[in-house]
Amino acid sequence: MLDLPTTPLKSLLNERLPGHSLPAPFYLSPGVFAADMEHIFAKHWIYVGVEPDVPEPGDVAIFDIGRYSIALVRDDDGEVRAFHNVCRHRGARLVTDEKTTVGNLVCRYHSWTYDLTGALIHADHMGPTFKRSCHGLKPVHIRSLEGLLFVCLADEPPADFDEMARRMGPYIAPHNVRNTKVAHQHDLIEPGNWKLTMENNRECYHCGTNHPELTVPLFAYGFGFAPEEMDEHDRAQAERYGCLVDTNHAAWEAAGLPSREIDELDTMVTGFRTERLPLDGDGESHTLDTKAACRKLLGDLPSAKLGGLSFWTQPNSWHHFLADHIVTFSVLPLDAERSLLRTKWLVHKDAVEGVDYDLDNLIGVWMATNQQDSDLVGLCQHGARSPAYQPGPYSPNTEMLVDKFVNWYCGRMAAHVGR
């Protein structure tokens, strides 16, 4: 890890040029990374998984946010809860497997036992004055957005989650996340700062020359373009795409599928954006032949040809909802120069692998794309280490969402440390 001179975070925030990438210490400095974990990941709503990660009572899933270990638990009443994965006796990690099923949560060290609501129900040899009710597991704030799970480590989480849920719920509900299963999960350690992973995701400027698989089902025009630089053929294609978006939005919304853009990426504490966009040609899904990867459609969706609903949240997630499957992505920082990208593919809970879907076909496009993006993130991380690095300007036509991510990040950091 590169050892940088200490620069006050306030000064670094003030150095940021609007419309430009961040000064190098934001991608390299262990001190900035520590501030990111304290002010961003410990004080905002963080996407961590889906309700189908813990489908039945007693199911437990563990994930880490920096130094925190969090246990997602489905209790006997079917409610999903979140707790700090730390025994209240002497601090031993309570659950060590990433996923497991339990009757109660039992610490292997001294057998302190907690029920699925987090209450301490057994602790030997603690004396007559010991009060079990004072030593339950520490809860973590958790909210489900139509089956997408978010946690917040702060004592008082941002209150605007309800606003996001109110506006996004109707978009996500038709895909019925709660009635899916995780067909596959892939964890990829990217060789770059978490902000570089997020910046890379927020644009498709690089897609045409780096993502041959992804650009089969996706229209390049859906992610920005510069009309003044186009020839007559490309302008005609862009106009055709614009008409296709308008026509499909009207049809989808008439059928009860909200589709039009909502963009609050840098205007809310819990920033988010969504839009349903058509796929190229006769496209149905994110596959190499653009056809549905799974024969069982989600929810009560009437057709496989319903475009792709994209949903982005600050600071660490993006999601693609198709008629036949869902792909969710979360970014969890590991250190100043490494990040964990976790991808999950969800299909109808009754879909059978090898009968209703072929796993390689289901995951192929995004497995290739994730690795390509990871390589690009690594190139940027290497570049940021160079003394020659200086923040470069974003394209106003294709990197608008990158700028909004960085605006959000700088605004939230400034809110906590000042300027």
TrEMBL record:
Pfam families: Rieske, Ring_hydroxyl_A. GO terms for molecular function: 2 iron, 2 sulfur cluster binding; iron ion binding; oxidoreductase activity. The keyword Iron applies. CDD domains: RHO_alpha_C_GbcA-like, Rieske_RO_Alpha_N. It comes from the Bacteria. InterPro entries: Rieske_2Fe-2S, Rieske_2Fe-2S_sf, Ring_hydroxy_dOase_asu_C_dom, Rng_hydr_dOase-A. The keyword Oxidoreductase applies. Its cofactor is Fe cation. Residues 47-151 form the Rieske domain. Keywords: 2Fe-2S, Iron, Iron-sulfur, Metal-binding, Oxidoreductase. Signal peptide: none annotated. SUPFAM superfamilies: Bet v1-like, ISP domain. This is (Fe-S)-binding protein.
